[in-house]
Amino acid sequence: MNSYTPLLAALVFLLIGLAAGKAWERYKLRDGTWIDRRRARESPHYILGLNFLVANQIDQAIEELTRAASLDADALEVHMILGNLYREKGQVGKAITVHQQLLQRPRLSRLEHAHVLLCLGLDYKRGGFVERALEAFTEVLRLDPKNEYALLNLQKLHEEQHQWTEAYDTRRRLSKLADTDSRPQSQAILAFLENEIGLEAVRRKDYSEAVRRFEAAIDLDARAVPAYLNLGDVRLAQGNEREAAAIWERVVDVAPDRAYLAFDRLEALASRTGSPERFTRLCRRLIDENAQDWRARLALSRHLALSGQHREALDLLFAALVQNPHALGIHQAIWRALGQLHHPASLVDRYSELTRHAVFYLDPHVCMRCRYRSTELLWQCPHCHDWNTFVEERIAPAQDATEVEV
Ligand SMILES: [Zn+2]
């Protein structure tokens, strides 16, 4: 689960190191002490240290880089990386001391100052000193307004504090710097943040502001599922059932794989407005369009069971089970349906046949970035704090599992 983070951190150290190295070179020429400055970076300890760093062997990296640093007390970049490694090891106090000492140096260039402050901000963040981290990243941006790494960290800190407006503004600055390839992803993150701002407005019962925010989220990213759900909730709270239903049904069109998130709402509304067949039609449509949609089958079976159609419900559940033998919800529904039908032997046998090779597990959602697992679909990963990174992991269907077992 944690394997990704140190590697990323190591690469970031390197990038920061290289960037600082460039700034440092200019400083070096200006100062005219060329030979001394090269000593640390040309020593084998420096290269060995970087190799250990890339191989994620932090203790050895610290050892070699400490030796390299001792050859040249002025080597800013080596000391900066050393500080970062202490932080990575959890020695935050030591990291802060190293970076603070570097800040005291006279004649730091503007960019060098920004880089050291960025490292210090990361130390504070790691140590849980939120206010000081915010201050450090803000100062980095004053010195270097296009520092994407500072912007990203600032955004994440604001998110952790639930300061959604500040997080949104920071993300917008980042979006402007993003290249065309990463723009859609950036828009999607902005949409999640708009959605959070909208939810704050809902809590204040400021429905017009909430609607504006949810609609803005959908404009930013047509697949912003939570914004549709919340916008429908607001319309329902305003007594506009028709519009609520229309908005939730749009989820089915824009994100059929996530449509199940609107099922409870749509089913309740269909029943309350006296047109339960509207929900039936919707589920049938989803099943027709995607034969693997086990959630639509589960929802439809539950809907049919409510009106006593237990045999039809059970057929749907068996079909759902073939698509996803591991979903606990399907098994529970099957047992309820079998109970309603008084456990006819032929149906119990069929169920037993379908489940013989199933492997059960409770947490099918997994973060694509850090492999964090969750029972429910989450929009923001509690481990790596990235947005919209969860996919549903499936083990092979029952018949394939047999082959694996043999
Ligand atoms: Zn994650």
CATH superfamily of the largest domain: Tetratricopeptide repeat domain
Q: Portion of residues in helices?
A: over 70%
Give me the CATH architecture of the largest domain, please: Alpha Horseshoe
Order of helices and strands: HHHHHHHHHHHHHHHHHHHHEEEH
Question: Which hetero compounds are present in the coordinates?
Answer: zinc ion
Q: Largest beta sheet: what is the strand line-up?
A: 2-1-3
> N-to-C terminal Cα separation, in Å?
30 Å
- Would you tell me the structural class of the helices and strands? mainly alpha
**Number of separate domains:** 4
Number of helices: 21
Gyration radius, in Å = 28 Å
CATH class of the largest domain: Mainly Alpha
Mean pLDDT: 86
Extended strand count: 3
Morphology call: elongated
**How much strand?**
under 5%
CATH level-3 fold name of the largest domain: Serine Threonine Protein Phosphatase 5, Tetratricopeptide repeat
Highlighted features:
binds zinc ion; Serine Threonine Protein Phosphatase 5, Tetratricopeptide repeat; 71% helix; 3 strands; 3-stranded antiparallel sheet; 21 helices; elongated; single chain; 406 residues; 4 domains; mainly alpha
Overall description:
By secondary structure, the chain is an all-alpha fold. It folds into four domains: 1-177, Serine Threonine Protein Phosphatase 5, Tetratricopeptide repeat; 182-274, Alpha Horseshoe (Serine Threonine Protein Phosphatase 5, Tetratricopeptide repeat), CATH 1.25.40.10; 276-355, Serine Threonine Protein Phosphatase 5, Tetratricopeptide repeat; 359-406. It is 71% helix and 2% strand. The chain contains 21 helices and three strands. The chain has helices at residues 4-31, 34-42, 44-54, 58-71, 76-88, 92-103, 110-127, 130-143, 148-160, 164-177, 183-203, 207-220, 225-237, 241-254, 263-272, 277-289, 294-306, 310-323, 328-340, 345-355, 398-405; strands at residues 365-367, 373-374, 390-392. It has a three-stranded antiparallel sheet with strand order 2-1-3, with no helix packed on it. A hairpin with a 5-residue loop joins strand 1 and strand 2. Helix 6 (92-103) runs antiparallel to helix 7. The longest helix has 28 residues, at 4-31. The protein is elongated, with a radius of gyration of 28 Å. The two termini are 30 Å apart. The chain binds zinc ion. Zinc ion binds next to loops.
